[in-house]
Specification:
globular; Jelly Rolls; 18% helix; twelve-stranded antiparallel sheet; 220 residues; 12 strands
Length: 220
């Protein structure tokens, strides 16, 4: 009787494809900008443990304020994705809205990051919506950003940049929407990217070859 097919190669293929490079930002790579319309009380915060993306409006121009958050992830030297998935992961502390605003806000990707230098205080605003953030959401939010990371790699950018912005639509007299999430300065729950590592591809190819060889031996 012929021996059963070894499962080692097939199992390793599954396990190895679950691993990748985890890219986390440093303090300089993330932060948020506080902008008060009609006031000089504007500042950039890169030391807080919490990133804020919020919009508050109470009826007069001098009480309108925005918080927009930014992260620049270093992708220099990373391998191309070759059909694998890249994810952006942030830990939402809270998200909220009032009035008729449809969601708490959005996460946007910066299509042209050619001038990104790794310092989030550049305030590079995203121009493509990657995902919206629902009101009432909390905990880990994992977002597929494969096409955006691959585009950045194809363009030779050193950083992949995202902005986190509140939803400013809704009732003019009752707008209050936004979300908060942990930053690189937090001891836990740091934001991170997961992208495939070059060794993963080698393991996948090698293990696939082992599985095919086992099948061939069984047929002979």
């Amino acid at each position: 009787m012929k021996s059963p097919i070894p499962l080692t190669g097939i199992l390793m293929l599954t396990l190895s494809s679950a691993y990748g490079v985890v890219v986390t930002p440093s303090s300089i790579n993330d932060g948020y900008f506080h902008d008060e319309v009609g006031s000089s009380y504007d500042y950039f915060d890169s030391t807080s443990t919490v990133n804020n993306a919020s919009y508050m409006f109470w009826g007069t121009s001098d009480t309108l304020s925005y918080n927009r958050a930014f992260i620049q992830f270093s992708i220099s030297g990373l391998a191309h994705l070759a059909g694998s998935t890249a994810t952006l992961n942030i830990y939402i502390i809270n998200s909220y809205l009032t009035g008729t605003t449809p969601d708490a806000g959005s996460i946007k990707h910066v299509s042209n990051a050619s001038n990104a230098n790794g310092n989030a205080s550049q305030k590079l605003y995203g121009d493509v919506v990657v995902s919206t953030v629902a009101a009432g959401l909390s905990g880990w939010l994992s977002i597929d950003v494969t096409s955006y990371i691959e585009s950045d790699l194809n363009n030779g950018y050193n950083y992949s940049c995202f902005s986190f912005e509140p939803n400013t639509t809704g009732d003019y007299s009752n707008r209050d929407a936004g979300f908060s999430f942990y930053t690189a300065d937090s001891s836990n729950y740091k934001p991170y990217l997961v992208v495939p590592e070059p060794s993963t591809y080698a393991a996948m190819l090698g293990c696939g070859a082992l599985a095919l060889a086992a099948l061939k031996r069984r047929k002979s």
